[in-house]
Fold:
Amino acid sequence: MRFGKRETLCNLFRIDLPIIQAGMVWTAGAKLAAAAANQGVLGVLGAGSMSPDLLRHHIRKAQSLTQRSLAVNIPLLYHQTEQQIDCALAEGIGIFITSAGSPKTYTRRLKDAGCLVVHVVSSPMLAKKCEDAGVDAIVAEGFEAGGHNGRDELTTLVLIPEIVRAVKIPVIAAGGIASGAAIAAVFALGAHGPQIGTRFAITQESSLHVAFKQAVVDATPDATMLCMKKLVPVRVLKNAFYTQIKTLEDQGASVEDLKSMLGKGRAKKGMFEGDLTDGELEIGQVSGVIEDIPSVAELIARLKKEYAETLQELAG
Structure:
C-alpha cells in the first residue's frame, strides 16, 4: 500500500500506514487500539469515557498487547482532563489527540514534555488557531462524523481542501470515511491521511455492545441525525431517546431542558450496555454503508485492497 508523498503521518507517528483509528468514547479501549496498532495504523485510546484509573488500566493493557505506536484522545470538555493527561504522561504516552476545547490549554505543556499534539477542528478558522497554538497536526472533522460534532455543518468534502489551504501543518481527514475509495478521495483533496471512526467502531475488537454494532449493520442511510446543537452537537443513531430530544428541540427546549433529558450515563447506557431504546447511540452518518462486523485485521486488509483497486480504476 503505497501513498507516495503521503508518508508524512507514517514518519510523524512511526506507523506503517497513514491511517488513524479514532479514539471514540465507550468504543476505543485497549483491545481496539492495540489491534489497530498491530496492523500498522495509529491505535488510539478514547479517554473521554474513562476515569484516570481506568485510563491507566487501558494504557497498560494496550502496551502489553502491542509494541507499536499508541495515542490517547482526550476531549477537553470533561472535568478530569488534567488528571487524564497526567496519567497518560506518567504511562509514557507520547501522542495526544485533543478535541472539544481550546488547543491553547494544554498544547504547550504537552510539547514541553516532548509529546506530539493533534487537535480536532471543524472549520478553517479553528484550524489556523491550532497551528498558531503549536500543534503538530490537525484532524479536520466533517459534519458526517459520529459523536460530538462541530456547529458549522461543513461536510468533509468541503472542509478538507479549505483547511489544507489555511494551514501548513499536516491535515488528517475525518467524517464519513469507511472504505479504501474514501481514503483515496481524501488524499485527492490534499489530506495527509484519514482518521476513521465508525468503521473501526463496528469491528470485533471495539468495546461497543454487540446489539449496538448489529443496529449499525442494519442501519439505513438516513438512520443518524445531529442533535442537541444548543448543548453539545452530537450525531446519533435514531431511536426513542433521539425522538424525545427532537421533540424537545422542536418545542424550543432550553439548554437546561436538554441537560435534564440527557442526564448522566446516557451514552454508556446505549453504547456500552446496549440499551437501544433509551441510550444515546453515538455513531457516524456512514453507518448506512456498513454491512458486517469484521476483525480489525480483516478491515485493514479490505481497506488496502479497495484503495489499490480505486487507484487502478482511476488510472485506467
